Amino acid sequence: MKTIQVKVKPNSRVRGLEELSDGTWLARIKAPPIDGKANEELITLIAQHFELPRARVSIKSGSSGRMKLVRIED
Fold first, then answer.
1. Which of 13, 40, 10 is nearest to 27 (CA)?
2. Is 22 part of a structural domain of the chain?
3. d(Cα 63, Cα 49) in Å, to the nearest integer?
4. In sequence order, which residues have a C-beta less than 8 Å from that of residue 34 and are 6 or more positions away?
5. What is the rounded CA–CA span in Å between residue 50 and residue 64?
């Protein structure tokens, strides 16, 4: 199990996940930060990137902010 720090940019034109030089991740998602839609898309994006089922990815902290700690169960 590992935890990654993710900075989320909602309402992006393109969807993507990239690792930055400082070890944090930048997630661009299309969903707006309303009613948890951005968090749901973030979990889906990370699960696809690491080729894991969605159930193995969870937001550990920061669910209402732009900086999040995401837990990934290998």
1. 10
2. yes
3. 20
4. none
5. 23
Q: How confident is the model over 4-13, as pLDDT tens digits? A: 999 999 999 9
Give the C-alpha separation, 29 to 21, whole Å: 20
pLDDT confidence band for 34 (50 / 70 / 90):
very high
Asked if the model's pLDDT at residue 58 lies above 90, the reply is yes
* Counted domains in the chain: 1
- Whether the predicted pLDDT of 74 surpasses 90: no
Report the half-sphere exposure of 9 (CA within 13 A, side-chain side): 11
Structural domain of residue 15, as residue ranges? 2-63
The CATH number of residue 34's host domain is 3.30.1200.10
